[in-house]
């Protein structure tokens, strides 16, 4: 859905601001909002009741922005950094079409999960800063997804990262992990601004800064500690405050926010067997890009994994998926795995063996040109008649690795081998001369 440039600045935000650490390269998807049931009422957990006490169904707004405003609970800050970021964001509307298009897919879910936990709803705006609501965002520190988890922290919060999927990018799993992490940080510091600083900088660093100020008899609130923080963290909370200000009163900043309906955008579909990503999109009557926007965690052309693997689809597409699946008379997956046993198994020889081309194997496995597979690597290959109907085993999904090395062509003979061959050749020639 095309939106006017005037809706631009509230979400555009941090891609243009200094210290933004997400890569903004995903296209805007033209998905339409799906109608689904309102969520059931959920009371706020006692530990966070001081930050939000309303039930989910107490929100009567028709727009998600109003719902977010209703749950603001983090104390405001007002300083030059906040003013600078507000000016920067509101002056750059061009990014809004991309960011608002992406955010409209995820915001309802994030807000609903925050309310269930009794957390401040302005935290739903944090992905604007972290990733510009781009689930494919990857930082220079290898932080990935909407919430920008680095690999180690992702593992700490049970986000699976293997050859087939990276749950740091998955909407459901990463949101659950991020909110759990933020709750833990709030419990640790008793202050949302310090919790946010720790989310960006690490709790150990914030604890050290607190101890340093305590030793000097100085206050330990965020603004008092800001001078001890790196520039990115020093700007982190002011950036969120700037976004809050714009969302709270968009007309004051000449901003018109896009309407995001206060209803679920997507629903979950259980995966009962391996299914090609392209086939899943076809059954749902969606483009592959649209499908990937809701299911960015899948890294290979086949969706596999354990029973907890879910597919997200807009409600109307989920209905089409089930109808088309019931009439589907072909294999759902055309891929299986193969383990490389030695140097003789080149990509060219594998392509011949499995009736495909080297380009198809390289593309399916993200193998760059001028590289070859090391022994022990597991790769995707097209299914043969012998493997049709067999799913990829869960232990392979969890343990498969792929290692590459530079492809320098045929290995050169060692000096010893060359000398030995030379002697054999001379002896053979000598015998021939005396025949």
From TrEMBL:
MF terms per GO, please?
Answer: peptidoglycan lytic transglycosylase activity
Question: Which Gene3D superfamilies does its entry note?
Answer: 1.10.530.10, LysM domain (3.10.350.10)
An individual GO BP term: peptidoglycan metabolic process
Keyword Signal found: yes
- GO CC annotation: what is one? membrane
Q: Which domain of life is it from?
A: Bacteria
Signal peptide positions are 1-22
Keyword set for this entry? Signal
LysM domain: residues covered: 336-381
A Pfam family recorded for this sequence: LysM
Presence of the UniProt keyword Signal in the record: yes
Disordered, as annotated region: 406-435
Where are the membrane-spanning stretches?
none
Q: Which family does it belong to?
A: Belongs to the transglycosylase Slt family.
Q: What is the recorded name of this protein?
A: Transglycosylase SLT domain-containing protein
